[in-house]
Amino acid sequence: MERLNITLDDEPAAKLARLAERMHLQPGTVARSLLASALDDADPDARNVVELLDGIPGALDRAQLGLEQARAGETVSPDDL
Asked: How would you write 8-63 as a 3-class SS string?
């Protein structure tokens, strides 16, 4: 099993918390189930990956920011986490 940490923006995090509360489950449990379902439905064909990434609001801006931060040395080594 692989561990994956995901940070959600405020709105999706609040929605996840509301779903978990209604289901009487921990938010992480609901998130794992939703992610597993989304991955089951995802088409791994490379032609569809661009469409999938383009559908993530702000993804390009965040990727470019991360690249700028890395170039400026504004990163944290995984060993320091």
From this structure: CCHHHHHHHHHHHHHHCCCHHHHHHHHHHHHHHHCCCCHHHHHHHHHCCCCHHHHH
